[in-house]
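Cross-check.
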Amino acid sequence: MAALRDCLPDDVIVLFQRPESLCDVITHYCPGCIHGVAHRVIAEVMDEMNIREKTIGIAPVGCSVLAYNYINCDFAEAAHGRAPAMATGLKRVLPDRFIFTYHDIDVRQNFHHPRSV
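Predicted model, tokenized:
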């Protein structure tokens, strides 16, 4: 965004810009889907905390698995409902990293499945 600021008059204040941790790509998600909002919030927090280079995201299969296309950090893929377990393992192996899981419906499916009780 520095290039944009260079082109603007001095009295213009930029109030809204893409977080650096959010990739500049067109989304594939369905209209009205909130994945884009979630991606932006995650990217903003990573930028505010200056942790992008030390962050690893974990996404299970489903729509959330494509988060690596939109959030500019390292990512790992996990099986349905297994992202929390994978995050625990990664945090134990890499304690200096910031680990987060990104889910859509797969966690709810596993916890509410009759056979999982």
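Residues 35-49 form the longest helix (15 residues). Residues 2-116 form one domain. Passed to J.P. for a second look.
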